[in-house]
Design a protein that fits this description.
2-enoyl-CoA Hydratase, Chain A, domain 1; 40% helix; eight-stranded mixed β-sheet; 23 helices; alpha/beta; elongated
């Protein structure tokens, strides 16, 4: 082999000899072995993806290619592909004869923010990204390896669905994926990114994962498409209205994050990943912050002056409390009467659940209960402490809520809080009435440390409603012009005696009434006290079942 390779040292010496007028030997040309040349050709063809016209069509729709998507997501140069040369085993309809390398999906491992993740990206330029058995085998093998390596799984979906040419084999492939989505739920984080069509049985894999991202104008998810809907029900609907990003973000609740473009989507995925541990056996990554733990929040004092019936966005409270005023909200467009997401307090990741008086007065309803319960189950699975900010007037009334199962759905929230064994700290901001007070991580539902602001009202019901029941005769017998003044007087007396946070604290249902401006410092100190409550991975494993 040595005679086929040019020796750089000898080459340098030959040049020197030639310059000195000495006789030199002819330069040896490096010969590429046939096996290596063939390998490089096959590799290049496989990495090219579908034919040029299919790639051009993909670009014309404003979509990235499967490999470009991975490049946006992972740290530069970190992707290691597996299964590049795998082909379909289908012998019908000439599929085998096409020798399509990769079978419509790219699988491998890469670093996101410096940490490993397993990634698959469906390639719409190859057979429409349809799922055949080999396609499914590549994904399931990757998922198995990810679970063994204890790293997250990120799926980029752009597929026409099951490959009709492969019949039941393609359906079995989906079954294999769904099984692993469930098997590894609560063990490693699972994220789905929808950047094209996702129809039929294909939608259930994203629904089983922890978080779903969609892109405006590109993403669609539906069990049955517009044509089937029209044939079955007579309803006429377009793709975007039926299963677009905002439909699933605001109405169905399937989508957790909506992006304006594909690059924006991958940026959001990276931000989410920065809050998550690699698996259930680790703590979430801590970050240093220059934001003082003792930073006072004078604006919290103003909250004590706000009428309990007036709305405000609880997001402002979350921003004031969090490190560097940063908050990653999850499910922003769904069930806005409750807000969930991730912050850091003293550098440590915390999951936040907060009633939002700006919508439906912050009352709990069916969708809010489901939204909060599933988020609580996720953070509990992955060792992320819980902060609950309470300002809740009760459950949203109405026939639709009762018939829709508010009892059953509300019970999910109770179950999730009671089941969670991570540190749980609660801060009552303004009001906490009735059964909703119990549901929002109350002391006897397992809250570890429960705080209250001085102006909070904690009672079976609001003072105004309570006096109408307790003093109905007295109010009725008063002169009409005196009734409002009487109501105000009685409501204050009721509030001072039965709804005062000091009354609740005297019974042990609140641990402490705190200074509003020092709320951030008190919360950070409380989470530090509870830091050793549970060792990651030591808790009983539960999956993050779709609620």
């Amino acid at each position: 082999m040595a005679d086929l390779m040019e020796d750089p040292i000898a080459g340098g010496a030959a040049a020197a000899q030639q310059a000195a007028g000495k006789k030199t030997h002819p330069k040896k040309v490096r010969v590429v072995p046939e096996s290596l040349r063939k390998y490089r050709e096959i590799q290049a063809a496989a990495e090219a993806g579908g034919p040029p016209e299919k790639i051009a069509a993909q670009k014309a729709k404003g979509k990235l290619t499967a490999r470009e998507r991975i490049a946006y997501l992972v740290d530069e140069g970190s992707f290691q592909e597996i299964g590049l040369l795998m082909e379909s085993r289908c012998t019908d309809f000439g599929i085998k004869d096409k020798h399509i390398k990769g079978d419509g999906v790219i699988t491998g491992f890469g670093k996101v923010n410096g940490r490993l993740a397993a990634i698959f990206s469906e390639d719409f330029t190859q057979l429409g990204g349809s799922l055949g058995r080999t396609h499914a085998d590549k994904i399931t093998r990757l998922m198995d390896m990810a679970a063994d390596a204890r790293i997250p799984v990120i799926g980029i979906l752009d597929s026409g669905g099951a490959r009709i040419q492969e019949g039941v084999d393609s359906l079995d492939g989906y079954g294999e994926i769904f099984y692993r989505n469930t098997k590894y739920s609560g063990i490693v984080p699972q994220i789905s990114i929808i950047v094209g069509p996702c129809a039929g049985g294909a939608v259930y894999s994203p629904a089983l994962t922890d978080f779903v991202f969609m892109v405006k104008g590109l993403s669609n998810m539906f069990v049955t498409g517009p044509e089937v809907v029209k044939a079955a029900t007579g309803e006429e609907v377009d793709f975007e209205t039926l299963g677009g990003s905002m439909t699933h973000a605001s109405k169905s609740g399937v989508c957790h994050f909506v992006a304006n473009s594909e690059p924006d989507c991958y940026r959001q995925v990276k931000e989410l990943m920065s809050f998550l541990p690699q698996n259930r056996f680790e703590a979430a990554p801590a970050l240093d912050t220059k934001d003082s733990e003792d930073r006072k929040i004078p604006l919290m004092e103003k909250l004590c002056e706000v009428d309990p019936r007036k709305p405000y966005r609880v997001n402002h409270i979350i921003w004031w409390l969090s490190d560097d005023h940063k908050f990653l909200e999850v499910h922003h467009d769904y069930a806005k009467n409750i807000v969930v997401g991730f912050i850091r307090l003293g550098g440590q990741v915390v999951g936040v659940i907060a009633n939002n008086p700006a919508h439906m007065a912050g009352a709990l309803d069916i969708n809010a209960s489901d939204k909060a319960a599933r988020f609580i189950r996720f953070v509990n699975n992955f060792n992320i402490p819980i902060l609950t900010l309470v300002d809740v007037p009760g459950y949203w009334p109405g026939v639709a809520q009762e018939h829709g199962g508010i009892i059953r759905h509300g019970a999910k929230l109770l179950y999730a809080y009671a089941e969670a064994s991570v540190p749980k700290i609660t801060l009552v901001l303004r009001k906490a009435y009735g059964g909703a007070y119990i549901a929002m991580s109350s002391k006897l539902m397992g809250g570890d440390i429960n705080f209250s602001l001085p102006s909070a009202e904690i009672a079976v019901m609001g003072p105004r409603g309570a006096i109408e029941i307790l003093y109905s005769r007295q109010i009725k017998e008063a002169k009409e012009e005196d009734r409002e003044a009487l109501r105000v007087k009685l409501a204050k007396e009721y509030s001072d005696k039965f709804a005062s946070p000091y009354q609740t604290a005297s019974m042990g249902s609140i641990d402490e009434v705190i200074e509003p401006a020092r709320a951030r410092a008190r919360l950070i100190a409380a989470f530090r006290v509870l830091a050793g409550k549970r060792r990651p991975g030591a808790h009983e494993r539960t999956g993050n079942i779709p609620l």
